[in-house]
Design goal:
This protein is α/β, with parallel strands linked by helices. It has helices spanning 12-21, 23-42, 60-65, 83-91, 94-104, 141-199, 205-244, 248-257, 261-283, 289-313, 330-405, 428-455, 462-469, 500-503, 508-522, 542-555, 572-576, 584-588, 594-597, 617-621, 624-634, 652-659, 674-687, 713-716; strands at 48-56, 121-125, 131-138, 412-416, 473-478, 530-535, 560-564, 598-600, 605-608, 639-643, 662-667, 691-699.
Length: 733
């Protein structure tokens, strides 16, 4: 009855089972590793540790003087770096170690100075402090203390030299490069600022800016007031001009002519002539000599009047004034005078507006330029301040460097010298050897266990057997061994203690065979009466399984016959304590009758031994006589159980499997290998035998997953059972 094969699940439980199977190998390698580790530890010589302390601090002298205060502070370039860790690395640098080697004259066995790298120090910062703990381990306590003390002294001396050399280099760099460059930048910036002020006529740009804004406001105010006054005067003048009806540009001349006697005298004579001419025209015609004479006089006087007006106001003005306009009344004369005054006032206001406007525009233009001037001046002043500050800082730094250069104090000092220790210390090598012995031994043991388990091709678990054969598991018989104290209750006289159902009923083994019998009844609707018990190789216990299965069936009230068909190495007569004088081989060849060869064991159980071992057992089994014998026996018994030879190397079981109702394959984990199991499976398939399933025999339940063992473990220990695990079955089949 085939079952679909499936690969092993690789889980932690399977790994644990491998270790349980190979516990002797793991334990042996583990104990060997511990022993070797212990031997190596015993060979270690005692070592002594010397310890000293270095303190890192700022220079108190500098902090008191305020000069060079931060020159020797420990600082790191990287934010996450620890300055003390950096100093710890420097402390173990090759130059310092070389100085220790040379000063102490440390030499190897050949007389040469040792390599500084061979000196291994432990340098660790003390948590929460600025102290470095320096320790060294040596077989000589005096040497350990001397090495630590000289190491710290060499570091302190080297630190002082480095500080002074750094100060010297810094001073030279400042004096030769930084200071001249800073002085030149300062002078250049100061000269640029002076030239800028001189070019733009600047004394105090901020004050000038404030005054300009104030002046622009005052000019704007005055300009508005003057324009208002100008508008008012212009309005008054226009009103007077409309009343006097004299143009403004003639008002002054007319007013002045009305006051000149010569002009007024000629004007009077002209008016008289004109009056007389008007009278004469009413009397005479225009051609009358009197009228002509009067016209001539009028013309002469008019010419004279124009001449005197021109002489009074100036000929360049080319002023043409009618004679009737040369005489003004008192009121009109007053109005003309007022108009002249307003004209003069208006001209004054116009000139003032023009002047104020010009000044306003000049100040506005200056105000527009001032922001740019302020920006340029601010830039120059800032550059000057930066240059002055840089120059000042360089002078200060130069003073600090000079102070540091003249000091003989470093950033580290020894606060605890290393003392000679009389107590040996536990070396890390000892701890490493101990821990390594345990760890390596355990790892090697586990690795060896898994390696051997992989190399070992035997079937190790029931699950693996199921996977290889592909048949259903019908029974699981745990490992057991029989005691030799003679206290077993023998139910069948002469039976071997390995026939457990005949010696220890109601035991776990007994129940396992009862479960096997029940499963055989469940696997097929057809009654299975003749069963061949086979195995892949010898020593899997198939004969024992056949005897116990037959005994269980007989105890159930069935008539059962055990036939020992293994005519190569018969065993059943030993298990049942009977003689093997005649048996199956004798019956097949016709030498004996079947009834005389069958030996009863109990009322329901009989056994047919193998008989005389023939030269060719396969020929006897693969014969008509064997087929007829099986049919004849089937009429007299309910079950016939055949014990057959191993399938590996022989075909007896395969041939017999074709004649019986089914074949039951016995598998013993740890005995059969995968190659034999695969060959057995292939032989059974080719023979077309009806394989009922597999029986796992001699199973160490501690090496199997819990799901495969369905027996109650607590019950196994009860009832005075004398079953123990980890034994080897006496049946070598």
């Amino acid at each position: 009855m085939e079952k679909q094969s499936h690969p092993d699940d690789l889980d932690l439980h399977n790994y644990w089972l491998v270790l349980k199977r190979r516990w002797l190998i793991v334990s042996g390698i583990f104990l060997t590793s511990i022993a070797l580790s212990g031997f190596a530890i015993s060979q270690q010589r005692p070592t002594y540790e010397a310890e000293g302390k270095l303190l890192f601090e700022a220079n108190r002298t500098n902090s008191l003087t305020g000069v060079g205060e931060k020159f020797r502070d420990l600082e790191s370039i990287r934010r996450e770096a620890n300055p003390l860790s950096t100093q710890a690395v420097i402390l173990q640098s090759r130059p310092i170690l070389q100085a220790v080697v040379e000063k102490l004259n440390l030499r190897d066995r050949r007389g040469k100075l040792i390599d500084p790298k061979s000196l291994v120090f432990k340098v660790e910062p003390v948590a929460g402090t600025d102290v470095l703990n320096v320790s060294f381990i040596s077989e000589n306590p005096q040497e350990a203390a001397a090495i630590v003390n000289h190491l710290m002294q060499s570091y302190v001396s080297n630190n002082v030299r480095n500080n002074r050399s750094e100060a010297l280099a810094a001073r030279m760099f400042i004096e030769t490069q930084l200071l001249p460059r800073a002085k030149g930048e300062l002078d250049k910036t100061a000269e640029e600022l002076r030239g800028f002020k001189e070019q733009n006529q600047i004394i105090n740009l901020e004050q000038e800016s404030n005054e300009t804004v104030k002046t622009i406001g005052e000019l704007d105010k005055q300009l508005n007031e003057t324009r208002s006054q100008l508008a008012e005067v212009t309005s008054q003048q226009a009103e007077l001009r409309s009343q006097v009806k004299i143009k403004s540009d003639r008002a002054v001349d007319v007013a002045s002519l009305s006051l000149i006697p010569g002009v007024q005298e000629v004007l009077g004579e002209l008016q008289k002539v004109q009056t007389k001419l008007a009278t004469e025209r009413s009397r005479y015609t225009s051609t009358h000599p009197s009228i002509a004479n009067l016209k001539e006089q009028e013309k002469t006087l008019t010419s004279l009047l124009e001449q005197r007006v021109s002489q009074s106001v100036g000929s360049k003005n080319n002023l043409k004034i009618a004679p009737n306009a040369l005489q003004l009344g008192a009121l009109k004369e007053q109005l003309v005078g007022e108009s002249v005054r307003l004209q003069a006032q208006r001209l004054g206001f116009e000139n003032k507006v023009q002047t104020l406007g010009y000044l306003y525009q000049q100040y506005k233009k200056r105000a527009n330029v001032l922001p740019n001037l302020e920006k340029k001046q601010g830039d120059l002043e800032r550059r000057l301040v930066v240059a002055q500050e840089s120059y000042k800082q360089l002078l200060t730094r130069l003073q600090e460097v000079r102070v540091v250069e003249n000091q003989n104090v470093g950033s580290a000092r020894i606060v605890q010298d290393a003392a000679v220790s009389n107590q040996p210390v536990r070396s890390k090598l000892t701890m490493y050897l101990a821990a390594g012995g345990v760890f390596v031994g355990l790892m090697l043991g586990i690795a060896a266990a898994f390696l051997i388990d992989v190399v070992d091709r035997s079937i190790k678990t029931i699950k693996e057997a199921e996977s290889i054969f592909g048949y259903t598991l019908l029974g699981l018989i745990p490992k057991f061994e029989t005691s030799n104290n003679g206290n077993e209750r023998i139910l069948i006289e002469g039976a071997s203690p390995r026939v457990i159902v005949a010696t220890l009923p109601r035991s776990r083994i007994h129940e396992s065979y009862q479960m096997l019998q029940a499963n055989l009844n469940f696997i097929s609707h057809k009654k299975v009466r003749t069963i061949a018990i086979a195995s892949s190789v010898a020593s899997e216990g198939k004969s024992e399984v056949a005897a116990n299965l037959a005994a269980v069936m007989a105890q159930a009230g069935k008539r059962v016959l055990i036939v020992d068909a293994d005519m190569r190495n018969p065993t059943q007569h030993h298990l049942w304590g009977v003689m093997n004088l005649t048996g199956l081989s004798n019956v097949i060849v016709g030498q004996e009758q079947i009834r005389r060869c069958i030996q009863p064991i109990t009322r329901n159980l009989s056994v047919l031994t193998a008989g005389v071992i023939p030269p060719n057992p396969l020929a006897l089994l693969d014969s008509e006589s064997m087929s007829a014998l099986i049919k004849a026996l089937s009429a007299s018994y309910d079950y016939i159980v055949f014990d057959t030879p191993p399938l590996a190397g022989t075909a007896d079981a395969a041939v017999l499997g074709k004649m019986v109702d089914g074949v039951l394959v016995v598998v013993r984990p740890g005995v059969a290998d995968t190659a034999s199991a695969s060959a057995t499976k292939s032989l059974l398939v080719r023979s077309e035998a009806n394989v009922l399933g597999i029986v796992a025999n001699g199973v160490n339940v501690k090496h199997e997953p819990d799901g495969y063992f369905y027996h109650n473990n607590a019950r196994t220990e009860s009832g005075g059972q004398q079953l123990v695990s980890q034994s080897v079955i006496s049946d070598k089949k």
